[in-house]
């Protein structure tokens, strides 16, 4: 199988016996992107991840490839320009994953609002220019109060002034990771999950030269030799560096926790993603997003000092979000018992980089005087009283101030950093999903420079802006048409329209490989035909080793299909046990692991305290 438990054994033999050009530690989105770029460029590449791919952070985001419109409140043009342009690149290389989904942003007359209707329109116009969607079907527009309420009748009308609608993209974060990982495997990379680093190794000159690892499936400990070592472990970045006894480590990470809650769309119905101020004058904004037949909302943003592997939703998180959402949608009257599922994730924020990142961007606010000058000049330009160059001049001469504070984690930068320690270990930290490709690009460039300088090994870096991930061989301009054609092919093979559409949207250009399993597997009792195919594809081609891998990260069953989850648990576990030849104890352990994850998602601990 291409990427399965069998290929894992082969990859481990390579890791044991050969010297890699680069060993990547961490299988979240940044590590996955780096593995793709390194493997495609011909480097002998290895990646180890102590959990499942994307399990730590990259499956726990708000599930958007977000354009950062609110940064334009402070005219952080460079940040937004880079973000929306990179978002377009990601949509081009993974067109089956980020999907255009215009966002509605209601505006309320309340103190310290992020936007007024006037400033929102200016920001959206600039945003459209940066995103190159002016004059297209995705161009922004405004809604009156009455139009907003016609679209979202549950929205609180008190103080509502209107809304803006602008382009944003929904995302399947864990799928983006696994599609990068699969493409890296196709290109010769050796990616192994459930493999924990326990020590950084060094050569006779004291340079980082690999790692000692423990196979968490077998308990075996062995060494991996590599010419360069890259640390892409997100919130664990400091932990990995602290394993390196050749360097003095100053901790740089300040992880914050974000929580999202899911309810049925009959409880809270929104027709499209919605984004608004909390109304609590705390500088935060909240998303309310439809997905499948559910609605989820978040996020919180609080400093986190607990177990990095297991951030949990606490009562104060629920109280905070329910207060905000019930204030904005008072007729919904959501209680904790309405919450069907949830997730908590960590943002790998950098405490000390003052908003900068190694791709040359900054994230700083500007003075009130500069804001006033920009707004005034833009208004005059729209009225024809000043020339375009005068707008450019006032934007160019904005006076900035550092945006970070020590007390409010919401003001921390989403910037990234690339550091090379004195023993040569490369650490890539910070950033956000939208920027993952550029972060990986900078890191792999550095690896290639080191290989050329120190080992006389020359590689030409691929153009990752045009190099599609696995499943991404779809025309980005014809995603709907090509996805529909893939779905129709499934209907012709005996799938229902719903099942075929589900698979085509999940797997993109890999969908024919999924359909091909119809000739090899029988429908599993208790599973639909689509779920049978999906499960076998996940085990054979996507390294799904445990039930939680499949039900949480290869698909979204636990989060957005909670109604049918309980009925498929037993058949999924039974088929995985048969396929992987689990012992009775393995089956018990993996079942218990899944039950614990579901209990956390269901908030059983908190609901028990309430009831």
From TrEMBL:
Q: What's in the keyword line of the UniProt record?
A: FAD, Flavoprotein, Glycerol metabolism, Oxidoreductase
**Pfam families given in the database record:** DAO (PF01266), DAO_C (PF16901)
Where does the record place the FAD dependent oxidoreductase domain? 21-351
Q: Which GO terms describe its molecular function?
A: glycerol-3-phosphate dehydrogenase (quinone) activity; glycerol-3-phosphate oxidase activity
Translocase as UniProt keyword: no
Q: Which reaction does it catalyse?
A: sn-glycerol 3-phosphate + O2 = dihydroxyacetone phosphate + H2O2
GO BP, sorted A to Z: glycerol metabolic process; glycerol-3-phosphate catabolic process
UniProt cross-references to NCBIfam families, sorted A to Z: glycerol3P_ox_1 (NF033461)
Q: What protein is this chain from?
A: Alpha-glycerophosphate oxidase
Q: What is the protein's species of origin?
A: Alkalibacterium putridalgicola
């Amino acid at each position: 199988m291409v990427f399965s438990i069998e290929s894992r054994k082969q990859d481990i033999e390579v890791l044991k016996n050969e010297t890699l050009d680069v060993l990547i530690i961490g299988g979240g989105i940044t590590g996955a992107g780096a593995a793709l770029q390194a493997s495609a460029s011909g480097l002998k590449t290895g990646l180890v991840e102590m959990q499942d791919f994307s399990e730590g952070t990259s499956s726990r985001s708000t599930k958007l490839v977000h354009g950062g419109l609110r940064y334009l409140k402070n005219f952080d043009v460079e940040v937004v320009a880079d973000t929306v342009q990179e978002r377009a690149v990601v949509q081009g290389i993974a067109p089956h994953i980020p999907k255009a989904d215009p966002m509605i942003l209601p505006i309320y007359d309340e103190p310290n609002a992020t936007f007024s209707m006037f400033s929102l329109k200016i920001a959206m116009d600039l945003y459209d220019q940066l995103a190159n969607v002016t004059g297209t079907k995705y161009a922004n527009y405004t809604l009156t109060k009455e139009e907003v309420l016609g679209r979202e009748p549950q929205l609180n009308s008190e103080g509502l002034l209107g809304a803006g609608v602008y382009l944003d993209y929904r995302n399947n974060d864990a799928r983006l990771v696994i599609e990068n990982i699969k493409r890296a495997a196709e290109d010769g990379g050796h990616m192994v999950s459930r493999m924990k680093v326990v020590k950084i190794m060094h050569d006779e000159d004291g340079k980082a030269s690999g790692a000692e690892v423990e196979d968490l499936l077998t308990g075996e400990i062995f060494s991996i030799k590599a010419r360069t070592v890259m640390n892409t472990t997100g919130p664990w970045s400091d932990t990995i560096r602290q394993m390196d006894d050749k360097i003095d480590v100053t901790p740089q990470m300040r992880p914050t926790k974000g929580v999202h809650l899911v309810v049925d769309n009959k409880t809270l119905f929104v027709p499209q993603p919605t984004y608004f101020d909390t109304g609590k004058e705390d500088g935060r904004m909240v998303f309310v997003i439809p997905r499948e037949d559910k609605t989820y909302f978040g996020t919180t943003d609080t400093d986190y000092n607990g177990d990095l592997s297991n951030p949990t939703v606490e009562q104060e998180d629920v109280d905070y979000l329910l207060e905000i959402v019930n204030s904005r949608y008072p007729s919904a009257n959501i209680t904790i018992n309405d919450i069907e599922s949830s997730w908590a994730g960590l943002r790998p924020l950098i405490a000390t980089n003052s908003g900068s990142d190694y791709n040359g961007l900054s994230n700083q606010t500007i003075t009130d005087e500069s804001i006033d000058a920009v707004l005034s000049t833009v208004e005059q330009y729209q009225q024809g009283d000043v020339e375009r160059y005068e707008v450019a001049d006032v934007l160019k001469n904005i006076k900035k101030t550092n945006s970070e504070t020590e007390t409010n984690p919401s003001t921390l930068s989403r910037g990234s950093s690339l550091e090379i320690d004195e023993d040569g270990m490369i650490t890539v930290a910070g950033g956000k999903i939208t920027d993952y490709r550029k972060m990986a690009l900078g890191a792999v460039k550095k690896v290639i420079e080191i290989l050329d300088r120190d080992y006389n090994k020359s590689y030409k870096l691929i153009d990752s802006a045009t190099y599609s991930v696995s499943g991404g061989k779809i025309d980005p301009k014809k995603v709907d048409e090509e996805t529909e054609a893939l779905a129709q092919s499934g209907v012709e093979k005996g799938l229902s329209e719903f099942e075929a559409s589900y698979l085509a949207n999940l797997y993109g250009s890999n969908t024919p490989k999924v359909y091909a399993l119809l000739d090899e597997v029988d429908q599993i009792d208790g599973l639909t035909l689509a779920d049978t195919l999906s499960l076998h594809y996940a085990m054979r081609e996507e390294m799904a080793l445990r039930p939680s891998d499949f039900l949480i990260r290869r698909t979204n069953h636990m989060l957005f299909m909670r109604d049918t989850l309980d009925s498929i648990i037993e058949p999924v576990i039974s088929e995985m046990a048969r396929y992987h030849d689990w012992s009775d104890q393995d089956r018990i352990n993996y079942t218990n692991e899944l039950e614990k994850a579901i209990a956390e998602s269901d908030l059983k601990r908190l609901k028990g305290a309430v009831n």
